[in-house]
Amino acid sequence: MKTFPFIYNEPKEFLKFLQPKDWANFFLGEINPRFSVTAIKAKVVAVKEETADTKTIVLKPNWLWKGFQSGQHVPVTVEIAGRRITRFYSLSSHPSDSNLQITVKRQKGGLVSNFINQNIKKGDILELGEASGDFVFSKEIPKQLLFLAGGSGITPIHSLLKDLEKSNYTGKVTLLYFVRSYEDIILKSSLEKIKSNVKWLNIVYVFSDVPKEGYESGFLTKEILEKYNPDLKSTSVYVCGPSPMQTKALSLLEGVKVKSELFLLPSQNVSNVKKEGTVDVFLTLSHKTIQVKGEKSLLEELEEQGIYPQSGCRMGICHTCVCKKQTGSVTDLSNGEVSELGEENIQICVTRAESSLELEL
Ligand code: FES
To answer: Where in the numbering of this chain does the FAD-binding FR-type domain appear (predicted)?
Structure first.
């Protein structure tokens, strides 16, 4: 009589073939799509419109969620046209809230931010990763704080403000929030609610595009910093916003304690380059050669040609996209440095091709 070969000869192989966790996930998913033994899945319990281009997604995660600290971000994976795509979003809620929330502003050409704003509805399931990031308070919270927020950079700052509110903070806080217009203020009602509950908070909205009577207008300048924070040397500053605002803030705040969180895609962080011709990129694992212009990040140029390497934050934070460059030279988009020609690991979301390359992809 014939025996079942896997069970009899190779029990380990048989178990591998069975993939017990996959089966468990399958059956649990049938009971409730949020259930899983391996993945942090979260049900969308509400979608709130913040502005014309920004929504807050309220999420109830499953038992694998380990919590977060105010100011941290979380990887969110969605499936778009059969492809799983991950992006990082700051949590705008407080760790003690019964549900999590992310607040997502549509980015021009942003695949996931547009998908979330257009398609995500109550009852949907999103997959999350673990929270991370060091845009958080140290153990001892400073007595004098200045938050500089630009656009959707308000999201982690909103969570930090809620943290101060819940910890009965007694210091002094100024929030300078730069947005295009009054209508673009994100999380406005919640910010105003925090302000009305505490004595220590001053919120100053600054409109860059559409001035409004009774409000500040323009961009970040030394004058506005000093107007609202005459004592900058003894203030701890938290900056979160687009790269030009961050660069400006760092140059104006020399000698001041600053913690910053970048909030833009890398291609928007560097000056645009126009290049003549293309260079070859040989992908050594898939034995493919493609031509790229070296005008954008390698990740973007690969994706434009239908090649989708693993990626997460797309801004040089999470290291999901790291791959080995075997030969060739790249530019680091975060600082403009051009690499040597030899072998090294690179983050393809924040590097662009300078010469022909061989990548272990
Ligand atoms: S995708 Fe996160 S570092 Fe590149």
So the answer is: 37-138
DSSP at 338? B
At 261 the pLDDT is 76
DSSP-based three-state secondary structure for 102:
strand
Pocket mutation for ligand 1, best pick of 85, 301, 321, 325 (most atoms within 8 Å of C-beta): 321
In a domain, 195, yes or no: yes
Enumerate residue ranges in the chain where pLDDT < 50: 1-8, 265-271
CA distance 14 to 346: 38
- Rounded Cα–Cα distance for residues 101 and 93 (Å): 5
Residue 23 shares a structural domain with residue 47 = no
Best residue among 132, 269, 318 to mutate for probing ligand 1, ranked by most atoms within 8 Å of CB: 318
103 lines ligand 1 (CB under 6 A): no
- Same domain (yes/no): 207, 243: yes
- Dihedral angle at the C-alpha atoms of 333, 338, 340, 341, nearest 10 degrees? 80
Residue range of the domain that includes 14: 1-31
